[in-house]
Design brief:
alpha/beta; UDP-n-acetylglucosamine1-carboxyvinyl-transferase, Chain; 4-stranded mixed β-sheet; 12 helices; 29% helix
Length: 435
């Protein structure tokens, strides 16, 4: 799919998309809950759909009611056994979802049956070594493809005091916390070295608390999981948050190309990408943060335009693409820290951003863990490629709003992974978008 973005101004109101981070965690918690769950405001992205498919494959019944809510009924568990459909060796396909593979694999390991875990696309090349390292300590048999998918596992997982490395991703810890919460028969501790993306763990703990789990966070250095009180037979309702990751692109669009109001983002959210607000404030955009909406636009005339900023994205690496789109229009060199977190995303995002924004005339320097973006020189029209990475496609589209020519995005359908309505939302705001 090819999409073109013509130089455009944006205005009006828009509601941010649903958070796939919140949605996928809610699906996992609903699977583990022995009863009914109602998920309000569910997401429809590819990653969201993959999560629904996984829990259905693992025994949950999922239906959509007339209001668009998801009604999930999870079958009764026997001890720590998750019912799997089909018998024999079940196969769980996580699509291209990094969170899905890392979160659902420990949960699936609660089952004593053999299971193959697989995915597609870029997920097939992303490292999964932590399963090889940790699972044998939990009495889980595992066979991987040299640390990559597909992997075969056979549980059941037996919660024990363990120490894990949190420097690559917090997503594996999310899966362990949920699996431990379900299976722990006594207090157990997970100790974590060098944990990154702490706000995502806050989101995990928030969802777990909502579903009745008892986890104590000891300064992100260790987590004490206690046996949970039974919630069997209860109906639990959960409302999926608006997505700060997708919303960040809308906010940047407003900051560089007009004045818009973005609704549906909770300013009290634990989502890591809420930190985009700091960058928008620091660069001098016109911003008004209200309880249920954020008004964002270009700086007032006479204020000298957008200013370069310094931002540490170590705990929110998904913000790199919208931050680069923002920095491209700031008058000077912006420094973004945390490049080491980008190597194993849907693409190697540090190099991909450097390559694709370079086509538009933006010079990006990668220096150890630092990205330097030389902005304020104008952007050229160009043909760019998403590298099958949803956030790269969205970053190029937002950057194209004030380019000096047409931006053509190849493999533009990559947005379906997280934000299928993104181009339509830009159109609603007045952008000139051709499909």
């Amino acid at each position: 799919m090819i999409v073109t973005i013509q130089p455009s101004s944006v205005s009006g109101n828009i509601t941010a998309p649903t958070s796939k981070s919140s949605m996928q965690r809610a699906c996992a918690a609903a699977l583990l809950h022995e009863g009914k769950t109602i998920i309000h405001h569910p997401g429809k992205s590819n990653d969201d759909n993959a999560a629904v498919g996984i829990i259905e494959n693992m025994g949950a019944e999922v239906k959509e009611d007339g209001n668009g809510d998801l009604l999930i009924k999870s079958l009764a568990f026997t001890g720590s056994k998750i019912p799997l459909s089909g018998g024999g060796e079940a196969t769980l396909n996580c699509g291209e979802s990094g969170l899905g593979i890392r979160m659902f694999t420990p949960i699936a390991a609660l089952s004593p049956g053999p299971i193959e875990i697989n995915g597609k696309g870029s997920l097939l090349t992303r490292p999964m070594d932590f399963f090889d390292e940790i699972f044998p300590q939990l009495d889980i048999r595992i066979q991987s493809n040299n640390g990559k998918l597909p992997i075969q596992i056979q549980g059941p997982l037996r919660p024990k005091d363990i120490t894990i490395d949190g420097s690559l991703s917090s997503q594996f810890l999310t899966g362990l916390l949920m699996a431990y919460g379900k299976a722990a028969s006594r207090p157990v501790t997970i100790t974590v070295n060098d944990l990154k993306s702490k706000p995502y763990i806050d989101l995990t703990l928030q969802v777990m608390k909502h579903f009745g789990y008892d986890v104590t966070n000891n300064n992100y250095e260790s987590f004490l999981i206690k046996p949970a009180a039974s919630t069997a037979g209860k109906t639990i309702e959960y409302t999926v948050e608006g997505d700060w990751s997708g919303g960040a692109f809308l906010l940047v669009a407003g900051a560089v190309a007009g004045h818009i109001t973005v609704k549906g983002l909770d300013t009290f959210s634990t989502q890591a990408d809420k930190a985009i607000l700091k960058a928008l404030i620091d660069c001098g955009s016109s911003i008004s943060i209200e309880q249920k909406q954020i008004k964002i636009g270009l700086p007032a005339i006479g204020n000298g335009g957008l200013k370069p900023f310094h931002f540490d994205a170590t705990d929110c690496p998904d913000l790199f693409p919208p931050l680069v789109a923002l920095a491209a229009y700031c008058n000077g060199t912006t420094a973004i820290q945390g490049v080491s977190r980008l190597a194993h995303k849907e693409s190697n995002r540090g190099l991909t951003l450097q390559e694709e924004f370079g086509k538009m005339g933006v010079n990006i320097i990668l220096q150890d863990d630092l990205m330097l973006v030389e902005g304020g020189n104008g952007l050229n029209g160009a043909v760019v490629h998403s590298h099958h990475d949803h956030r790269i496609a969205m970053a190029c589209a937002v950057a194209g709003l004030k380019a000096q020519g047409v931006i053509t995005i190849e493999e533009a359908e990559a947005i379906n992974k997280s934000y299928p309505d993104f181009y339509h939302h830009l159109e609603q705001l007045g952008a000139i978008v051709s499909f």
